[in-house]
Amino acid sequence: MPAPRAAAQVGATTFGPVFRGLRPAGADTALFLLARARRVGVSTFVQTSAALGYLQLGPRQQLRYRVGSDWIYDSRGTPPFVRQDYGADVAHVFTLDDAQHWQLGQQLHYDQSRANATRTGLWLGRLGYHRRLRPASPLDTLSQLHLTALAGLATDHRNGRSDAGVALGFDAAALYFLNGTAAPPLAVRVLGTRAQLGPRTLQRLVAEAAGEQAFLENAPLLVQGRLGYRTNRAEDYLLGSVQRIQSDTVLAQAGATYKLSEYATLRSDNSVLLPTRAFRYRRLSERADTLQDVGYRQREIDTRQELRFARPQLQASIAFNYRERTRAYYLDNSRRLSAPRLAAALAREQVKDITEQTILWQGNLTWLPTARHALALLGSAQLLRVDAPSKDNQQIRDEAQHLARLTWTGRWAGSFRTTLGVAGEYRQTVFIRAGLSAENYADHLLHWEPGFTWAPGKWSIRSQYHLWVSYQVRDQATEQARNRASRVLEQTQSLSYQLRPRLLLLADYVRRENRVGQLDWTRFRESPLDTSVTHDLNIGARQSWAGPRGSTSLRLGYRLLEQRNYGRAALLPDASALNPASSLIYLHNITRQQGPEVAVERRATAGFNLAASLWLQWLRTYSTYAVGRGSYIGTSYAAADLERETNRVLPYFELTAEWRLGRR
User: Fold this and answer.
1) Strand 636-637 relative to strand 550-571: parallel, antiparallel, unpaired?
2) Which of helix, strand or coil describes residue 482?
3) pLDDT at 1 over 60
4) Higher per-residue pLDDT: 82 or 34
5) Torsion-angle region of residue 581: left (phi > 0), alpha (psi -120 to 50) or beta?
6) In the structure, how many helices (H) and strands (E) does the chain have?
7) Which domain of life is it from (predicted)?
């Protein structure tokens, strides 16, 4: 859509939004109140509140504002609050001429974080110029030019220091829809900001241009490209010094789409990214330690070539993707080290030098033998090679991955639909250096994914299963005891019945079982180590009402969430026992959460909206065990510890309230 694309291109500065033009009176909400609160854990709560709006103060004036807070509360902490963030933005814009080309305004911004003990404030004056680039074309109202100049004062309080200074900024952006508003435009933008806060300087510069062009009328070739440059300087206090993080990035991207025939299309996308980072330090006092200046240079190359073929009953594609990332570290002798010490420090940094190369082949094939059946085949092969020049870097490795997936989807009479998926995957990781060669392994994975959906009349039944099996085998003979076999079975059952036109009965059940065992690959046998099973049952009824002013729904139900962990452990003997050795036990840890659940939702065409839910949960945690034969070396428990259980009542709630005042 051209309108959202234009809004995104003429977006925002680091100081806040750049307001594009005056909206018609009554096109927004005068006051919008938002409140969200929910419980996310036994002792953790989150809360968000905001008030924002848009006021048309006259034919040439508008006011936009926003204030809000964001909290995370943990009652176990000291102090209990984990995070308390507050923010406010107010912007006032006045149009100087009837054509709405020139605008004068101001903006206030405030942000506070109590957890980090930071507080920032900003006042900016704004002078903007806006005009259409194609005024003679009534169909093109999106080609436009924006020029904005910003100047004001900024304050920053952090690390026990209060800084203040001048803030400046400019933004120039242009959109030109050469090929109509349905095609991507030619976009050019230059944005710069700078704030001088005491001994610290914060600045940013962004310049980018992007466009797309078709050559000749009805030509099958379409070319797109993008150029960009970004530099950012951020300074903060660190150990008695001012740390500067200097980031510079150059981007070049070129792509093309060529229509080979009526059914085949070739696409190419290529990009080069050259980022550099430098970490520099200035001492604030003579006693402060001198930190070492360090940085790195990076190069990223990414290319993707894709061939697509599409017929009514057959669609296919094959793609090749190559990506390379190289990073090299360097040092500046800011500590005036001697040549041997500088060489040793540089060698420590260059251990992190790295080169990553990724080659990926992907293929897709979809065949529709009939109008009701589809067969899809997916295949991929990927190779990741990680290399480093330093002999001390142990992360040099090769990772290979091969995947094949076959999916069949069928639609039958009576709104009955079935799906069946089967997949096989092979992964191999090989560390080149001897230090991590014991971690070399191969992973064999199998997937089985059947399911169906049936909607006969008032009933709706959906059932899905996913079974995936993994066999992880170590390469070295001495590491075979670390071989693992894993099986995960996940099933989802959903059932609903429309009892009356506005009364719906619901039942959902999710079960997930994860079994991990020690694998003997040569004999293809396994010994169970750990098993966890989770049950999630939710049943209820939902009644809805609808009227000219909105809709309301009420849901009543019951929810059970249970998790069982099965494993082996050791039982410590009593103090009076004759045999001091611990014995093997088969331990079951059970956590059960259950209780009634109620939810209400109100959606109005205008005015007040509410969504609230409450799960009155009874939480019980306990353990059971059975004594086995022999002893066990591992986690040990005393009998008194295993007899303890926890019982609590925890109301889990979630609330979202929205209230609109004024015209929309």
Assistant:
1) parallel
2) helix
3) no
4) 34
5) beta
6) 3, 31
7) Bacteria
Instruction: Give the C-alpha separation, 130 to 173, whole Å.
Output: 10
Look up residue 456 and give its two tokens. Answer: 């006969």
Q: Helix (H, G, I), strand (E, B), or coil: what is residue 435?
A: helix
Phi/psi of residue 631, nearest 5 degrees: -110, 170
Query: In angstroms, rounded to a whole number, what is the distance separating the alpha carbons of residues 191 and 146?
Result: 11
Q: Is the pLDDT of residue 309 over 80?
A: yes
Tokens of 619: 């939480």
Interior/surface letters 384-412, b for 16+ CB within 10 angstroms, e for the rest:
bbbbbeeeebbebbbebbebebebebeee
Categorize the per-residue pLDDT at 506 as very low, low, confident or very high, splitting at 50, 70 and 90.
very high
User: Where is average pLDDT lowest: 296-305, 333-342, 589-598?
Assistant: 333-342
Q: Between the CA of residue 500 and those of 250, 267, 396, 457, 460, what are the distances in Å?
A: 62, 52, 64, 12, 14
CA distance linking residue 655 with residue 219, whole number of Å: 55
Strand partners, 390: none
pLDDT in tens, 591-614: 999 999 999 999 988 788 999 999
Q: Which of 353, 349, 313 has the alpha carbon at shortest distance from 332?
A: 349
pLDDT at 22: 37
Q: Give residue for tokens 């169909």.
A: 139
CA distance 557 to 507: 9
**What's the CA gap between 646 and 620, in Å, rounded?**
5
Report the distance separating Cα 247 and Cα 203, nearest Å: 11
Amino acid identity at 44: T
Taking a C-beta distance cutoff of 8 angstroms, is the pair 25, 12 a contact?
A: no
Amino acid 27: pLDDT: 44
> For 163-186, what is each residue's pLDDT tens digit?
999 999 999 999 888 877 777 888
278-to-75, 248, 249, 251 alpha-carbon distances in Å: 41, 9, 12, 18
CA distances from 224 to 189, 209, 230, 558 (A): 17, 11, 20, 55
First to last CA, the chain: 23
Which pLDDT does position 217 carry in this prediction?
A: 63
> What would the two tokens of residue 261 be?
């025939």
Show Cβ contacts of residue 136 under 8 Å, excluding neighbours closer than 6 positions.
none
Compute the average pLDDT of residues 26-32: 69
Ramachandran assignment for 607, one of left (phi > 0), alpha (psi -120 to 50 degrees), beta (any other): left
pLDDT digits (tens, 9 = 90+) for 117-162: 899 999 999 999 999 888 878 888 888 999 999 999 999 998 888 9
Q: Which residues contact 306 (CB under 8 A, 6 or more apart)?
A: 266, 267, 268, 317, 318, 319, 320
Backbone φ and ψ for 344, nearest 5 degrees, come out as -70, -40
Tokens encoding 6: 């234009």
Taking Cα atoms as reference points, which of 460, 462, 357 lies closest to residue 418? 462
pLDDT at residue 291, as a whole number: 84
Q: What is the pLDDT of residues 46-102, one digit of tens each?
A: 999 999 888 888 888 888 899 999 999 888 877 777 889 999 999 999 999 888 889
Q: What is the pLDDT of residue 221?
A: 84
Query: What DSSP line would sit under 55-104, residue for residue?
Result: EE-SSSEEEEEEEEEEEEEETTSSSSEEEEEEEEEEEEEEE-STTS-EEE
Q: How far is CA 194 from CA 148, 170, 250, in A?
A: 14, 9, 20
Long-range contacts of 220-224 (CB under 8 A, 24+ apart): 220/258, 220/259, 220/260, 221/256, 221/257, 221/258, 221/259, 222/256, 222/257, 222/258, 223/254, 223/255, 223/256, 224/184, 224/254, 224/255, 224/256
* SS (HEC) of 566-610: EEEEEECCCCCCCCCCCEEEEEEEEEEEEEEEEEEEEEECCCEEE
